[in-house]
Design a protein that fits this description.
5-stranded antiparallel beta sheet; 4-stranded antiparallel beta sheet; alpha+beta
Length: 193
Amino acid sequence: VIVAKNEQGEIAVYPPVEMVFNPVYNLVDYLISPANISTEHTLQAQKIATQVTHAFHSPGLFAVEMFIDKSGTILVNETAPRAHNSGHQSIEGNFSSQYDMQMRVLLNLPLGNTESICPSLMLNLIGENGHHGPVRYAGLEKVLRLKNTYVHLYGKSETKPGRKMGHVTILRNNSEELKDTADEVRKHLKVIS
């Protein structure tokens, strides 16, 4: 859950996102917004994230990462006091992106609208196994032709296995369409050298 807090103590809370981790590199493979959790867990996660944010006694943008254990208990894992990978889908998926919100906090402007525009998925682009050196993006043109699919490259000139090189945001009607399109992106777009 991403939370913004301004100097007056006003809070803006984003919908929770669901993160799926890459088991080899132990980093986010993709995330879906909003998370596929109950309304009760959604409200509880937002409440916990707000409490964590208030505990810092500082304005800012905070990413509060949590787990839901098998018994349904929500546990805080870590907090990042900045724009975060877990909020990248907000660039296209929310009315006010995490970057817009961070600017509003820094300039002490009114906080923005955190509501989702529609379901979104953020897929991290990482260096392919066996590739080290100057980066190339195989299949980029094919992915750029997909509707409501946005490629963000981070401008890194060198790749290596597992290195985050960018992300793709996908907007669709539901989580199945999101996952199907993510599979298509994975099939075509490769970070190689």
